[in-house]
Design brief:
There is one protein chain. This protein is of the alpha+beta class. The chain contains 14 helices and 15 strands. The strands form five sheets. A six-stranded mixed sheet has the order 10-14-15-13-12-11, with helices on one face. Helix 2 runs antiparallel to helix 3 (48-72) and helix 3 (48-72) runs antiparallel to helix 4. The chain is elongated. It starts with a helix and ends with a helix.
Length: 447
């Protein structure tokens, strides 16, 4: 793997670290009377014990951040793509788990302190509904705003049918974004205390920015699809388009999330002096909503604009369990890639077939269907349509300006390669990791 690829992976994956760090650190700031997932009264916001716990929490986050950064420095020097991806995917899984350990510890300490100081709200129900705010009609963004980016995303499909599955996959994301905007939002007022004007303002802020987030992603995806199509023949421009799309989407969503948090902090900075809403008993570690009496699968997160599953529902437990399994299983993808890198490309001929294989996949041509076979000394310019494109193996469906679509199973490092044309016109390019194997096979076919 070249230094360019290693730098690309670094630039794309490493930002996960500061995103996690600053998002969790932001929970130290009081928003809607909530600090690190614990609802506290106004008097507790500057309490010495609370501030001590928060300083320890921020220090632990910083140490965790620097520790993970140090771990991935060697990734810049790992030349094996499979080994590099194994390290990166293991790193991502650990970041998504380990970073929450300081959060959970601080949350538990603040909960205990809350009980010891008698800060628990007991004079009123833990959860209330502001009828005026809840009755305010939500003005949804028209689906017509999502139509132009959807049509833009289909432009590549009109000119390139080889990668139809890619263009359609990206295009389908846009109506999915609208569906997420329209049906994942929980229409619940942001009740913090008995101040109705504050509740209305908080509700409008979340609603507006929720729609803005999905609309930006829709337009970015439409332009992204066209960008991919225009840069298919230029690998580094292609990668730059992917990087630009990732940055635009991530920075936009994160920027909107932090803007919502800042507004929530500003609007509720004087709250919690008398009555305040306290839902802590329904939030495990301040992060996971659990309420058997709530029939909803999803609810609004208490801070920011996100949503959360109700872990009291069996379907939510299954979804979260599957997500956790997938996260922890991610490093296995790297192990699989290591196997692909080490597996040789093989070429063999039997009495009836010519067979090319690599790592459990094989492609065969009946000898009776071969119209012509010749050696190819130089590798022409080709484009992968579907399949593997590694330093040691190019397998699957490829495209060439002269041949059109063809089936490929070669080790690009070891030529020459065997170009086979069937009687129906389909072309196969076979090779082997063993030097001279193609000449030997051609000799056998000629006999």
């Amino acid at each position: 793997m070249t230094i360019g690829w290693r730098l690309f992976l670094w630039v794309v994956i490493m930002p996960i670290l500061p995103i996690m760090y600053f998002t969790l650190k932001n929970d130290c700031k009081c928003k809607k009377n909530i600090i690190v997932g614990v609802t506290l009264p106004y008097e507790a916001h500057n309490d010495t014990s609370v501030l001590t716990y928060l300083e320890r929490y921020k220090k632990e986050l910083k140490l965790t951040c620097w520790g993970f950064l140090a771990v991935i420095v060697p990734c810049l020097f790992i030349q094996s793509f499979g080994v590099s991806m194994t390290v990166w995917l293991t790193w991502i899984a650990l970041v998504c788990v380990v970073f929450f350990i300081p959060y959970i510890r601080c949350n538990k300490d603040l909960r205990q302190l809350k009980e010891e100081r008698g800060w628990r709200q007991k004079e009123a129900p833990q959860v209330v509904t502001d009828l005026k705010a809840a009755a305010e009609e939500m003005r949804w963004i028209s689906p017509w705003w999502f139509l132009p980016p959807f049509l833009i995303s289909l432009i590549p499909l009109c000119f390139d049918q080889d990668l139809w599955w890619l263009w359609i996959l990206d295009a389908v994301l846009i109506p999915m974004f609208y569906a997420c905007y329209r049906w994942l939002y929980r229409n619940r007022a942001e009740v913090v205390d008995n101040n109705t004007d504050r509740t209305l303002a908080l509700t409008r802020i979340r609603r507006y920015n929720w729609g803005k987030c999905w609309l930006i992603m829709a337009w970015a995806t439409g332009v992204f699809n066209v960008g991919l199509w225009l840069t298919l023949e230029h690998i580094w421009l292609f990668l730059e388009v992917i990087l630009a799309y990732s940055l635009v989407v991530c920075m936009s969503v994160i920027g909107i999330e932090f803007r919502v948090r800042r507004l929530q902090e500003k609007l509720t900075e004087g709250s919690g002096q008398e009555y305040y809403v306290d839902e802590d008993d329904r939030w495990i570690w301040g992060m996971l909503y659990y309420n058997p009496n709530d029939t909803r699968l999803m609810v609004n997160a208490r801070v920011g604009m996100n949503t959360s599953f109700n872990m009291a529902r069996r379907s939510a437990q299954v979804i979260m369990g599957l997500c956790l399994i997938l996260l922890l299983a991610c490093p296995l993808i790297g192990v699989w890639l290591i196997g692909m890198e080490r597996a040789p490309v093989e070429l063999d001929v039997t009495e009836t077939e010519l067979i090319g294989s690599h790592y459990g996949s094989c492609w065969s041509v009946a000898l009776a269907d071969i119209q012509s076979a010749e050696l190819l000394e130089e590798m022409p310019s080709v484009r992968r349509v579907a399949g593997t494109g590694m330093d040691n193996a190019m397998t699957g469906t490829y495209r060439n300006s002269e041949w059109g679509r063809f089936t490929c199973c070669i080790d690009p490092r070891t030529g020459p390669w065997l170009l086979v044309t069937q009687t129906d016109g389909h072309i196969y390019l076979f090779g082997s990791s063993t030097k001279g194997e193609a000449e030997k096979i051609l000799s056998e076919l000629s006999d």
